[in-house]
TrEMBL record:
<feature type="region of interest" description="Disordered">
    <location>
        <begin position="1"/>
        <end position="86"/>
    </location>
</feature>
<feature type="compositionally biased region" description="Basic and acidic residues">
    <location>
        <begin position="36"/>
        <end position="45"/>
    </location>
</feature>
<dbReference type="Pfam" id="PF06638">
    <property type="entry name" value="Strabismus"/>
</dbReference>
<keyword id="KW-1133">Transmembrane helix</keyword>
<feature type="compositionally biased region" description="Basic residues">
    <location>
        <begin position="19"/>
        <end position="35"/>
    </location>
</feature>
<dbReference type="InterPro" id="IPR009539">
    <property type="entry name" value="VANGL"/>
</dbReference>
<feature type="transmembrane region" description="Helical">
    <location>
        <begin position="153"/>
        <end position="172"/>
    </location>
</feature>
<keyword id="KW-1003">Cell membrane</keyword>
<keyword id="KW-0472">Membrane</keyword>
<feature type="transmembrane region" description="Helical">
    <location>
        <begin position="224"/>
        <end position="244"/>
    </location>
</feature>
<feature type="transmembrane region" description="Helical">
    <location>
        <begin position="111"/>
        <end position="133"/>
    </location>
</feature>
<comment type="similarity">
    <text>Belongs to the Vang family.</text>
</comment>
<feature type="transmembrane region" description="Helical">
    <location>
        <begin position="184"/>
        <end position="204"/>
    </location>
</feature>
<dbReference type="GO" id="GO:0005886">
    <property type="term" value="C:plasma membrane"/>
</dbReference>
<feature type="compositionally biased region" description="Polar residues">
    <location>
        <begin position="74"/>
        <end position="86"/>
    </location>
</feature>
<keyword id="KW-0812">Transmembrane</keyword>
<protein>
    <submittedName>
        <fullName>VANG1 protein</fullName>
    </submittedName>
</protein>
Length: 523
C-alpha cells in the first residue's frame, strides 16, 4: 500500500475505495442479519437463487460490453487472463503424448506399406528378366539356339515391361492425400494376388525348368512372356477396381456442419466409409465457407444474458427439480418477447454492415483511381524510376486501411486477414490490372477454407466416428461423423433411387388438322 501511495491523487482514490468497501461491508452485514418482528418472532426467509451463467464470468462481462462497444474495440480492449501462456497441465501432457504416439504409428504404417509395395513391385519387374537370364548363366552350353521368333520375343518382353512400368507408376506411385485409419481393402487384395501369382510362377519355374535344366530356350522365353501378359491383365484389373468402379454415382450424401448448419450434397459411387469421408473432406475445403467461431458468440452471449436474468424464489426448501421446472417455465414466457430483441439486433447489425461496406467500396475505388493516375505519371518517367507493384500497394494501402479494418471487424473476419496478406493481394491485383471489385471480392463475401492460410484453419486433423466398420462399403441410411477440434461434419448417406423410364409414342398425324371454311363467312 505504501508503494501505491506515492501521489496525493492515488492516496485520495485509495481512501475513497476503502470507504466504499466499508460501507458495502456494513450493508452486506445488515442485509444478512435475521429480520425480526416487533414481538420477537422470526419472519419468513426468502432465498434468491440465480442460475449459473452459460459462459464463464469473463465471457459474460465481454458479452455485456459487446453491446456498447464502438468500432475501435480491438484497439482499446485489454484482455486479462489468469494463466501464463507457457503453462501446461497434466491433461495437455497426456494429449501431447497421445498425439505423438498416434503420429509415430501413422508414419510407421505409411512407410511399412510403401516398403512392402516397393519390394513387391521390384520383385515383379525382375522376375521375367530373371527367367530369361538364369538359363544363360547356369547351363548356357546346353541350350538350343534362339531363332528369329525367340529374338522377337525379347523385344515384346522389353516393351511390355516398359508399358507395365509406366502404368504402375501412374496408378500406384502417387503422393498420398491423407492417412486413412484402415488399409485400402482392394489395394491389399491386389498386392496379395500379385504375390501369390509371382510365387506360383517361381515355383513352377524352379520345379520344371531349373531342376530339369530345360534346353528349349524359346519355350523359356515364351514362359516369361506369359508372365508379363498376366501382369498386364492384373494391372487392368487394378484400374477397374481402384478407379473405374467408383465413377458411377450410386449414393447421395448430405454433409451438415454442426455449428452453423451449413450443408452440401454430393454424389458418390461404390466407396468404403473411410474413402467416402476422404472425398467429403476434400469437397469441404473447397465448397464450405470458412468456419468462423466469432459469428456464434453473439447468439451465445444473448442466450447467456437471458438465462442470467432469471430468478427463482424457493420458500419451502431447497428443491432442485422444482427450480429447474421454474427456470424452464420462465424461459418459455420470456421467449415470446425475445424475438423482438433479436429482430432489432439483426437489423442494426445489417445496417452497420451496409454502412461499412459502402465506405469500404468508396475508399477502394478512390485508391484504384489514384493508382491509375500514378501509372499515367510513371509512363512519363524513366524506366529506372518506376515503382513496382509492391511499392504501389504500400503507397495506396493507408487510404483504404481504416475502412477495411472497420468492415472486417464489423463482419468479424479480422482474424483471417493479416496486413501482409492484404498487401500481397493488393499487389497481385495491381500486377494483373484488376478492378476494385475484383480486389474486394475476397473481403465482401467469406470464401472457402482453401482461400486462407493454413495457419488460420480451424480444422486440420479429423476423427472418423462410425457404427459400421470403416472398411465396409456405403449403404442406404448409414450415418457417420467427422470430428475436429471445434466442430463436426455429420454425413447422412442415401441411395439414389432406381429410375424407370417409359416411352410413349405420339403419332405424327395427330398433330395435323383441317380448316374448313364456310361460304358465307368473310374469310
Amino acid at each position: 500500500v505504501s508503494a501505491a501511495m506515492d501521489t496525493e491523487s492515488t492516496y485520495s482514490g485509495y481512501s475513497h475505495y476503502s470507504g466504499h468497501s466499508k460501507k458495502a461491508h456494513r450493508q452486506g452485514r445488515d442485509r444478512h442479519k435475521s429480520p425480526r418482528s416487533k414481538d420477537g418472532s422470526r419472519s419468513e426467509k426468502s432465498v434468491t437463487i440465480q442460475t449459473p451463467p452459460a459462459e464463464p464470468l469473463l465471457g459474460n462481462d465481454a458479452s455485456r460490453a459487446e453491446e456498447g462497444q464502438d468500432d475501435n474495440w480491438g484497439e482499446t480492449t485489454t484482455a486479462i487472463t489468469g494463466t501464463s501462456e507457457h503453462s501446461i497441465s497434466q491433461e495437455d501432457i497426456a494429449r501431447i503424448s497421445k498425439d505423438l504416439e498416434d503420429s509415430v504409428g501413422l508414419d510407421c504404417k505409411r512407410y511399412l506399406g510403401l516398403t512392402v509395395a516397393a519390394v513387391l513391385g521390384l520383385l515383379v519387374f525382375l522376375t521375367p528378366i530373371a527367367f530369361i537370364l538364369l538359363p544363360q548363366i547356369l547351363w548356357r552350353d546346353d541350350l538350343e539356339p534362339c531363332g528369329t521368333v525367340c529374338e522377337g520375343l525379347f523385344i515384346s518382353v522389353a516393351f511390355k515391361l516398359l508399358i507395365l512400368l509406366i502404368g504402375t507408376w501412374a496408378l500406384f506411385f502417387r503422393q498420398p492425400k491423407a492417412d486413412l485409419p484402415r488399409v485400402f481393402v482392394f489395394r491389399a487384395l491386389l498386392l496379395v494376388l500379385i504375390f501369390l501369382f509371382v510365387f506360383s510362377y517361381w515355383l513352377f519355374y524352379g520345379v520344371r525348368i531349373l531342376d530339369s535344366k530345360d534346353t528349349n530356350y524359346q519355350g523359356i522365353v515364351q514362359y516369361a512372356v506369359s508372365l508379363v501378359d498376366a501382369l498386364l491383365f492384373i494391372h487392368y484389373l487394378a484400374i477397374v477396381l481402384l478407379e473405374l468402379r467408383q465413377l458411377q454415382p450410386m449414393f447421395t450424401v448430405k454433409v451438415v456442419r454442426s455449428t452453423d448448419g451449413e450443408s452440401r450434397y454430393y454424389s458418390l459411387g461404390h466407396l468404403s466409409i473411410q474413402r467416402a469421408a476422404l472425398v467429403v473432406l476434400e469437397n469441404y475445403y473447397r465448397d464450405f465457407t470458412v468456419y468462423n467461431p466469432a459469428l456464434l458468440t453473439a447468439s451465445k452471449s444473448r442466450a447467456a444474458k437471458h438465462m442470467a436474468g432469471l430468478k427463482v424464489y424457493n420458500v419451502d426448501g431447497n428443491n432442485a427439480s422444482g427450480q429447474s421446472r421454474a427456470m424452464i417455465a420462465a424461459a418459455a414466457r420470456r421467449r415470446d418477447s425475445s424475438h423482438n430483441e433479436l429482430y432489432y439486433e439483426e437489423a442494426d447489425h445489417e445496417r452497420r454492415v451496409r454502412k461499412r461496406r459502402a465506405r469500404l467500396v468508396v475508399a477502394v475505388e478512390e485508391a484504384f483511381t489514384h493508382i491509375k493516375r500514378l501509372q499515367a505519371e510513371e509512363q512519363q518517367k524513366a524506366p529506372g524510376e518506376m515503382m513496382d507493384p509492391r511499392e504501389a500497394a504500400q503507397a495506396i494501402f493507408p487510404s483504404m486501411a481504416r475502412a477495411l479494418q472497420k468492415y472486417l471487424r464489423t463482419t468479424r473476419q479480422q482474424q483471417y486477414h493479416s496486413m501482409e496478406s492484404i498487401l500481397q493481394h493488393l499487389s497481385f491485383c495491381i500486377t494483373n490490372n484488376k478492378l476494385p471489385w475484383a480486389f474486394l471480392e475476397r473481403y465482401l463475401n467469406p470464401g472457402p477454407t482453401l482461400q486462407y492460410d493454413r495457419d488460420r484453419w480451424f480444422s486440420k486433423q479429423w476423427t472418423l466416428v462410425s457404427e459400421e466398420a470403416v472398411t465396409s462399403g456405403l449403404q442406404d441410411g448409414i450415418v457417420f461423423v467427422l470430428k475436429c477440434l471445434d466442430f463436426s461434419l455429420v454425413v447422412n448417406v442415401k441411395k439414389i433411387p432406381f429410375i424407370k423410364l417409359s416411352e410413349e409414342f405420339i403419332d405424327p398425324k395427330s398433330h395435323k388438322f383441317v380448316l374448313r371454311l364456310q361460304s358465307e363467312t368473310s374469310v
